[in-house]
Design a protein that fits this description.
The complex is a heterodimer of chains A (about 300) and B (about 325).
Chain A (H helix, E strand, L loop, with lengths): L1 H14 L5 H11 L1 H22 L3 H4 L27 H37 L1 H16 L2 H11 L5 H27 L3 H8 L4 H12 L1 H24 L11 H5 L5 H6 L1 H35 L1
Helix pairs in contact in A: 2-11, 3-5, 3-14, 5-6, 5-8, 5-11, 5-14, 6-8, 7-8, 8-11, 9-10, 11-14
Chain B lengths: L1 H28 L15 H11 L5 H13 L13 H36 L4 H15 L2 H15 L16 H38 L3 H8 L4 H13 L1 H24 L5 H10 L3 H29 L7
Helix pairs in contact in B: 1-12, 4-5, 4-7, 4-10, 4-12, 5-7, 6-7, 6-10, 7-9, 7-10, 8-9, 10-11, 10-12, 11-12
The chains are: A mainly alpha (about 300), B mainly alpha (about 325).
Subcellular location (chain B): Cell membrane
GO biological process, one term (chain B): transmembrane transport
Organism (chain B): Lactobacillus xujianguonis
Chain lengths: ~300, ~325
């Protein structure tokens, strides 16, 4: 009995100290110079949007002043000009960038938590539980999410940023669940899981105390790539007018000015800065995600 | 083989039932009913109430659901609130346009993706491989609508190489000029959509080639003296193409979901544009029919993908 206890202790010391997710992130990013650049760009954009919006007053930014409408680049102190309602595009860009990133992060966090719990349960228990869960996941994944999101946006009463986050998450969690399930499936036959089971740990303990730390770097990758993807979904919806309400600036709404043939050619300042900012955000966040994925893959091969 | 197809069809039945329930719930959440469009100041509210009663709108919800499903089997999708014509004919006109645009997009996607995937797999580590990897990463990262907007701005408005809206120009007459005009109008949206959707295919093909070329059967073929070209085309490539068949269903779903945005940007009169018009005009019967159609088409796309998969790879046939 005493021997058993000792063995368990040794075992847990050996397996349950994987490097913390955040430390891996920093170490891998510093190694890869291109990824480091991308990471710095992400930080710079976050600072630009979040610190910038601290100095802005929402009602002042969205206030309409017809006298100032359609100033071009640099006219009258407006670096990126103004829109139809005389609102400064640079300020809208900062607020819109912040809103779009915030929604991307919120949707990703919700999807990650739900997907992680569902994925761990499906992967750990397998069998009939796994089949039922994966059928549901399959079904939601093949649904044409974009048209359904647009319809939901029109039928939901009191539509706002929070309902938008909830709606996108309904579809978002499925890919996370599938992703985590595959890793848990690979882990559940491992010796450390068996050892923990033999020594009497409950299923919940094994799932969240033993398996979870071992897939922590996967969680970071899912988060980073998920944020980029979900920013794309939100801006896409706002772009065609069914995302954030008009009163809340979004990068998508700004790019949506390009849906008007007159604006596309004669007033590029309305949509071009937002399009370029979104381009840079998507490219840099995805690059960081890819670099992390490569690092994680390489490490898995070593094992 | 046929058993597999049959079993796969049986799986689709519960999916269709769930889909119809979801669409029905969405439809019930939409305000208005078939008589909303008929109301004018002279209408007697009692008359409307009588019509509603006659149409069964006061029946229990499940009775309404089964009646709706029954009508679907007769091809009756209802009458548009706004345009007062049958929804079936309204959608049929637009579906043709979307079908051709999607077909052209799929053709261009594979025409671009398969050579790129093969090159990326064969020239891994060389500059060609690296270049395709970079291109692949960019198309994966950028949201589609940004590409469409920048594309229409550059190639449509600024350079003037392509038409910027519609599906055919008014001045075209005669059979071949009209066909050419239609093709020309679809070309830019199809190319841009294709560029965006190459990502998955290129990646699967590249990884397939990299994985397969170190397999034992390839070494056996080489040591038997099979020419390098035959080894690649017959052994490596054929096996690497398998996952692409599986990805085909995904491509269809992506195109359908994407048609809403691409048809809005290019003002192309297809199903996606009809969908957006129905939303803004609150034409809920058309809207319901369109969501149902989108759902059924994606289910069929998935079915096709599984059937193709079981034809090309006998290993996965369900026992």
């Amino acid at each position: 009995m005493a021997k058993d206890k000792k063995m368990k202790k040794d075992n847990s010391q050996q397996v349950s100290t994987p490097p913390l997710g955040i430390r891996i992130v920093l170490r891998e990013i510093v190694k890869d110079k291109a990824a480091l650049t991308a990471f710095c760009i992400v930080i710079a954009i976050l600072l630009f949007c979040f610190v910038g919006s601290l100095f802005l007053n929402k009602s002042q930014v969205t206030e309409i002043n017809i006298a100032e409408s359609y100033y071009a680049w640099g006219e009258n102190g407006h670096i990126f000009g103004t829109d139809e309602g005389g609102r400064d595009i640079l300020k809208l860009l900062i607020m819109g960038g912040r809103n779009s990133i915030m929604i991307g992060i919120s949707v990703t966090l919700i999807s990650m938590v739900v997907g992680l719990i569902v994925g761990i349960f499906a992967g750990y228990y397998g069998g009939i539980i796994d089949s039922i869960i994966m059928r549901i996941v399959d079904f939601i994944q093949i649904m044409p999410n974009f048209p359904i999101l647009i319809v939901l946006a029109t039928v939901i009463p009191n539509y706002n940023a929070y309902t938008l986050v909830g709606m996108i998450s309904i579809f978002g969690w499925t890919s996370s669940a599938r992703y985590y399930r595959s890793f848990v499936l690979a882990q559940r036959g491992r010796e450390y899981v068996m050892a923990s089971k033999t020594s009497g740990s409950s299923d919940l303990q094994i799932m969240f105390r033993e398996v979870l730390p071992n897939i922590s770097s996967m969680i970071i990758i899912d988060l980073v790539l998920g944020i980029a993807g979900n920013i794309g979904v939100e801006t896409g919806l706002s772009f065609i007018g069914y995302g954030l309400p008009i009163t809340t600036p979004s990068l998508g709404t700004l790019i949506g000015y390009a849906n008007d043939p007159v604006n596309v050619t004669t007033r590029p300042w309305l949509w071009m800065p937002a399009a370029i900012l979104l381009l840079i955000i998507s490219l840099s966040i995805n690059y960081v995600g890819r670099a992390l994925q490569k690092a994680a893959d390489a490490r898995q091969r070593e094992n | 083989m046929w058993k597999t197809v049959l079993r796969r069809l049986l799986i689709m039945i519960p999916q269709l039932i769930v889909l119809s329930i979801i669409v029905f719930i969405l439809a019930k959440m939409m305000p208005g009913d078939p008589f909303t469009g008929l109301i004018n100041p002279n209408t007697d509210p009692k008359e409307i109430a009588r019509l509603r009663q006659a149409a069964g709108l006061n029946d229990p919800i499940w009775v309404q659901y089964f009646r709706w499903v029954g009508n679907l089997f007769h091809g009756d999708l209802g009458t548009s609130y706004v345009q007062h014509v049958s929804v079936t004919s309204l959608i049929a006109d637009r579906a043709v346009n979307t079908f051709w645009l999607s077909l052209l997009t799929v053709v261009i996607t594979y025409a671009l993706a398969i050579p790129m995937g093969i090159t990326a797999g064969r020239r891994e580590g060389h500059w060609q491989g690296t270049l395709i990897q970079i291109f692949n990463y960019i198309t994966f990262a950028i949201p589609g609508f940004v590409v469409y907007i920048l594309g229409i701005w550059l190639f449509g408005y600024t350079l003037g190489w392509f038409p910027i809206s519609g599906s055919v120009s008014g001045s075209a007459s005669g059979f071949f000029p009209v066909i050419w005009s239609r093709f020309y109008h679809m070309l830019l949206p199809a190319i841009l959509a294709a560029v965006i959707s190459t990502t998955g295919t290129v990646q699967y093909l590249r990884i397939g080639i990299l994985d397969n070329r170190v397999e034992d059967y390839v070494r056996t073929a080489r040591s038997k003296g099979v020419p390098e070209k035959v080894v690649f085309n017959k052994h490596i490539l054929r096996n690497s193409l398998l996952p692409i068949a599986a990805f085909f269903g995904n491509t269809i779903t992506g195109l359908l979901s994407g048609s809403v945005i691409i048809e809005t940007v290019f003002n192309y009169p297809g199903m996606g544009q009809l969908f957006m018009d129905s939303i803004s005009q609150r034409d809920y019967t058309t809207l319901t029919a369109l969501i149902l159609l989108y759902g059924i088409l994606t289910l069929i796309g998935n079915l096709l993908s599984d059937i193709i998969m079981s034809i090309v790879d006998p290993r996965i046939r369900i026992q």
